[in-house]
Specification:
Layout: H1 8-16, H2 22-42, H3 45-62, H4 72-101, H5 125-143, H6 147-157, H7 163-170, H8 174-194
């Protein structure tokens, strides 16, 4: 842009004013994180790409409504998560319609796309393999959580957002976010204890 690193909030104001390059700069900053968050909710690569692109379109169209009362990232992540949850609702509706007609069974592509996270390298290859397997089991278990629980876990574990920001992103109270996190942790512990 001007050779000066602009804040996200300033870039958003420039997007609203249709300053050339401002939108591209925001997309560059948030594209990878947006995809990662979308994938954590919808659990499908193509759907995650679609949802993150839709969120950027909504950002472009609604940039003028950004009031700056929250951080830009909180505002944008809320748009993104809402796109993902809307997508999940639409998808469930189509699944029910298709199932009722008896032409196609309900498919769960979430089980096909597993998070392939690898633990930091350790000196002992056996320890490294065990750590990789534990990490894989953990993220597979995260995949079985509800979309809102997955979003809470991802926003806290991967994005490092505090409870207050997660609440703002999801449009929930902080107490509800804590309940989702507690239920997610309880479910993960139970699932991981049952795995041999």
């Amino acid at each position: 842009m001007d050779g000066v690193e602009l804040s996200d909030e300033e870039l958003c104001r420039r997007v609203a004013a249709r300053v050339p390059g401002a939108f591209d700069a925001l997309v560059d900053r948030y594209q990878e994180r947006a995809y990662r968050i979308a994938w954590s909710v919808v659990r499908d690569r193509e759907d995650a790409r679609d949802c993150s692109q839709e969120a950027f379109v909504r950002l472009h169209d609604a940039a003028g409504s950004f009031a700056g009362q929250a951080k830009f990232s909180t505002w944008f992540f809320r748009i993104l998560v809402n796109c993902c949850l809307d997508h999940q609702r639409r998808r469930r509706g189509w699944r029910r319609l298709i199932s009722r007609e008896g032409t196609v069974r309900e498919l769960d592509s979430a089980r096909d796309d597993r998070i392939e996270r690898v633990a930091a390298p350790l000196d002992d290859p056996v320890d490294r393999l065990e750590a990789e397997q534990q990490t894989r089991r953990l993220w597979e278990a995260v995949g079985d959580l509800s979309p809102q629980q997955r979003a809470v876990v991802m926003l806290q574990a991967r994005e490092g957002l505090p409870t207050g920001e997660i609440a703002a992103v999801l449009g929930l109270s902080e107490a509800t976010v804590r309940v989702h996190m507690h239920r997610a942790v309880t479910a993960l512990r139970k699932r991981l204890r049952s795995v041999p």
